[in-house]
Amino acid sequence: MAEDNDSSQEKTEEPTPRRIEKAREEGQVPRSKELNTAAILMVGTGGLLIFGADLGDALRDIMHTSFSLPRYAIYDPHQMGLYLANAAITATKALAPLMAALFIVSIAGSIALGGWLLSAKAIAPKFSRLNPLKGLKRMFSMKSLVELAKAIAKVSVVLFLAIIILESQTEELLGLGREATVPAMAHAAQILGWSFFMLSCTMIIIVLVDVPFQIFDHHKNLKMTKQEIRDEFKDTEGKPEVKGKIRQLQREMSQRRMMQDVPEADVVITNPTHFSVALKYDPEASGAPILLAKGSDEIALKIREIAKEHGVEIVAAPPLARSVYYHSEIGEEIPSGLYMAVAQVLAYVFQLKQFKRRVSPRPTKPDFPIPDDLRKDE
Fold first, then answer.
1. What is the pTM of this model?
2. Model confidence over 107-159: pLDDT tens digits?
3. Nearest Cα residue to 303 out of 291, 290, 294
4. Which of 289, 301, 292 is nearest to 336 (CA)?
């Protein structure tokens, strides 16, 4: 039994939709820092390659203007402020495209895995995080060990690929010494830009490993024990005793509504010992009689009592009462196979009313025909 209990506490069950939704409300979604870092580095270095010439021209203009001021501007604070403002505007215009691209990719990289999420619970202060024992436990946990291994692997991969990239650029770097100063500076900037871009692209290898791991780790953390599944089912669906009580109340409410319809019936057909069914026929509203109420034993007795109180005719026809009871639902038409039998009942009721008014002699109750497929023996 102990072994069964231990195994039942293992998180072997797939997370339920409610578990996933609750985890998301608490800010628990898969995230990859490596994906965001790789996106920012690649867009940043790519942006420098694309906008680098414009940035260089803007920097050259700022330096040329700043180092060739006229004499009157040097001694005029107002003029110095204007020169500073113009330099700031030029730098802003040059940096704006690169900064906008980095801003967009920083947001896109953050929500690429896990989607957009703003959780108040995730940013709420938790004093349990200040517990030094729990902090030590997190430091020496399996997750921390995995993060350490990832960091070492990341540094190793980047260092290895950086060496390969530098070796591939060795000849061009050595050739810079044979070029003129200005072209050599431009060539060096180009080499550095492409080298950093290729080095940033090496992060794709780390991302291809980290993203599946983060999804797997998140899914693993959301897994549930069998007891958690049962507890969640009780919380969402309700405890059995509560559900039983609710069903009982629903039955009582349904019975009360059903009993309120009995006085509107045209006839109540009974099996005097067990069943009662109340029928109403309205030729203008429907082409077939409608079952207003039905019941057995105590409910059948209550239906008969209400019918007597409101002057509804009661006809004892045990086979027909059983057939209507088992083959009809409240509020629905009776089966077509019982049309003839119920029509004879209604005609018999009409004749009884005529007899009570002393308009016609007492009628003889007919033998109501019931098809074999609708007959229900006790």
1. 0.52
2. 888 888 877 776 666 566 665 666 666 666 666 677 777 778 878 888 888 88
3. 294
4. 289
The angle at the Cα of 120, spanning 114 to 125, to the nearest 5 degrees, equals 115
DSSP letter at 357 equals T
Task: Look up tokens 């008014």; give the residue.
Answer: 357
Q: Once rounded to an integer, what is the mean pLDDT over residues 324-341?
A: 87
Beta bridge partners of 233: none
* Residue labelled with tokens 């108040």: 120
Strand order in 290-296's β-sheet?
290-296, 275-280, 267-271, 313-316
Query: Would you say residue 6 has pLDDT above 60?
Result: no
Residue 37 and residue 150: Cα distance in Å, rounded? 14
Query: d(Cα 194, Cα 206) in Å, to the nearest integer?
Result: 20
Q: Specify the pLDDT at position 126.
A: 62
Q: Find, among 280, 283, 284, the residue nearest to 294 by Cα.
A: 280
Judged by phi (left if over 0) then psi (alpha if -120 to 50, else beta), residue 238 lies in left
